[in-house]
Amino acid sequence: MADTLHFLPAKMGRAGEDVALQLEAAIIDERIQPGQSLPSERDLQAEFKTGRGVIREAMRALQQKGLIEIRKGAKGGAFVKQVEVAKASESLALFLKQQDVDPDYLVEFRESMDRTITILAVARGDGKEKRKLEKEALKLAALIEEDVPDMERLVEMDRNLNIRLAQMSGNPIFEWLMRAVQLGFSSHDHALYEDPEYRRETVANWLETTRQITADEPMKALSSIGRHYILLRNRLAEKGGDVSVEKAGDVPRANG
Amino acid sequence: MADTLHFLPAKMGRAGEDVALQLEAAIIDERIQPGQSLPSERDLQAEFKTGRGVIREAMRALQQKGLIEIRKGAKGGAFVKQVEVAKASESLALFLKQQDVDPDYLVEFRESMDRTITILAVARGDGKEKRKLEKEALKLAALIEEDVPDMERLVEMDRNLNIRLAQMSGNPIFEWLMRAVQLGFSSHDHALYEDPEYRRETVANWLETTRQITADEPMKALSSIGRHYILLRNRLAEKGGDVSVEKAGDVPRANG
DNA sequence: TAAAAACAAAATATCGTACCAATCAAGCTG
DNA sequence: CAGCTTGATTGGTACGATATTTTGTTTTTA
Asked: Least CB-packed of A235, A242, B228, B232 within 10 Å?
């Protein structure tokens, strides 16, 4: 527990926000280190001289930001966390989802991002990472041999390949972007895997791309990336305009 | 008010999250349109068959995500908002700050984005836009002739040039990204304009870049962009590590 | 006797309700 | 038309009850 912390009584009128801001400031200034816990709800209540509801609202806001993790029970409480890149991506994904952006623009954007990431990954990824990536692509290839491939699983593996590649770029900002895009718009890739012919070609393309990356052949890898986007554009054109951005129906629900 | 909305009773144990998720889904799904308001807290309480505290926590989470805006008083309530790009920017800034990400990565990211944008802008921007851009660069050049240039104004014009260029790419995603980056991380550019020598070179470089764009010379424009980032990197190296990403202290505060 | 299992207790977050305060818009009144 | 009143809504506080997890203790078992 982090003692010797002192806060001002919460301001009336918008107490919850005030509490949240003071706590956030304390965390960001590293007056409370990651891993440490904030005082218990009741203690905070006393510290801020306010009701517990206010404290709880503030906690919820910080939790939502990914700054704290709340554990119940004895020795429970609010523990300061390192913000994960996945959490940071959520808010961009949310923004992207709300704008209904023309799929063409999205594809264009993704292609440009993919190309940069690929170049960086070839240059910076170490051999082990590269071989691991190639192995993942092989696993994907094995999966489509089945008669009735599990679509969800396929799309998830595709997503993971993309994120892994972004990680190999070594630049966390690209990982952030890639995750956001994958969070918001995986429906396009879904389209690629629906059709057996495209599915086959897409996976073959993944194999080729990862192989060229392992072989330290950036230009050939780029060429392969280009092929991927040719496939994607053709597929989207075939399907017509009915592949719009994902609706929120797929937001994970807490209860069944 | 959006009536005829139906929600499931909140699940025990993590009711707040459940409520937040259901509401978020309804918003993203556009079952509730931006501008419309959610039912009042008490109505939601009845709908979800839960206590008011739970509803308020959920509201706070949604508010924190930027999905709703809460107004007090008569005709008050929770109004669905368009998520602002600033939210995504904030959350990225928080992540980079907490993880202590090297500013070099940001520069690298910006350079790659700038290059793509420039190519697209040359290809898609019409002559009028390009000349307008060049004129803005000229205005910037005029400004640094003064003995004591207004730094704020300089940085703002630089920002506007960047955003205008992003707009000319014709792809809204690049514009959003550019805005997000400019919002949270313009301190680097500030560094470029502090030193008289760098200031002069930076502005000269802007002139060159915009000129090449107007002349439909993408490769020369790229070359010029490259020069910009050489300047920026040199400047940052000179200044040492003290130019970190913006503190979260500049996050807009709701109450004074 | 020592290890393992079962049980009780304490600390903590979570949930529900009731009540009052502050705020704001619209309508009423003089 | 200025000022007051009223109704609707969110904001804040208090208290009690419940669920969950850890911890310590006791009992059982090998």
From this structure: A242
